[in-house]
Amino acid sequence: MSESVLSIRGLQRTFGSAHDVQVLEDLNLDLHPGERVAVMGASGSGKTTLLHLAAGMDTPDAGEVLIDGKTLSTLREPERSRFRARYIGLVFQDFNLIDSLTVRENIELPLWLNGLSHETDRIGELTDELGISALLERLPEKLSGGEKQRVAIARALVHRPALLLADEPTGSLDQNTADSVLKLFDRVTRQQNVTLLMVTHNDEAAALCDRTLHLRHGRLSES
Ligand SMILES: Nc1ncnc2c1ncn2[C@@H]1O[C@H](COP(=O)(O)OP(=O)(O)O)[C@@H](O)[C@H]1O
Ligand SMILES: [Mg+2]
């Protein structure tokens, strides 16, 4: 059996100075190469917390996250950042675009970080498909929420990551635009064997996944 792309063991995360707000509690998850998993759950159930921990951008109270068999927290900088930049594409719930960079520069960032600056064709393909190619020279402040979300999606895919983590990626989009984003996710996950962990409230987004998990009381379950 092939190794997991993402393996989460006994993950626990609390907040508050007394660690009294327990958000994740003994959470376990294994994603195999090319697997597509949707995570649903009430607002405040810890979905964003889970994605940040999966990306190694936050530290758990207990438990571990392995990506491609490596524990991110045991890698030292700059290896850790380099590994994350190469391996993961992340669509943040609040987009996290860099205000001082144009749309094109935001999307180019993962290419720069990975020494792939020559792959400019890839930007054209993605921005055409996402309907944002006319926005490339704009600054993020001149974009609508739905446009920002599509820029964040292009940035997450441009370097062909093995693992795509997406936090409500259709949350700011109208029906038609959401459909084209889901089609894009479907295609890249199939053609490039990308593993997808997607937080969503959208039944159509969940339907493109191989399984849907529910986050409740700090744990994931099948139903
Ligand atoms: N940095 C933080 N400090 C304190 N509490 C936090 C922090 N991040 C998240 N929380 C709390 O953790 C809970 C889960 O948040 P979040 O993961 O954003 O939920 P979801 O994405 O499912 O809506 C919420 O109650 C939120 O207030
Ligand atoms: Mg959230």
Features:
223 residues, alpha/beta, Rossmann fold, 6-stranded mixed β-sheet, 4-stranded antiparallel β-sheet, binds adenosine-5'-diphosphate, binds magnesium ion
Strand order of the biggest β-sheet: 6-7-8-3-9-10
| CATH first level | Alpha Beta
Order of helices and strands: EEEHEEHEHHHEHEHEE
Number of structural domains: 1
What is the chains' assembly state? single chain
* Record field, number of beta strands: 10
Shape: globular
For CATH, the homologous superfamily is named as: P-loop containing nucleotide triphosphate hydrolases
What is the terminal separation in angstroms? 26 Å
Counting H and I runs of at least 4 residues, what is the number of helices? Answer: 7
Q: What ligands does this structure carry? A: adenosine-5'-diphosphate, magnesium ion
Taking pLDDT < 50 over at least 5 consecutive residues as the criterion, the unreliable ranges are: none
Which structural class should the secondary elements be placed in?
Answer: alpha/beta
CATH architecture: 3-Layer(aba) Sandwich
Question: If you consult CATH, what is the topology?
Answer: Rossmann fold
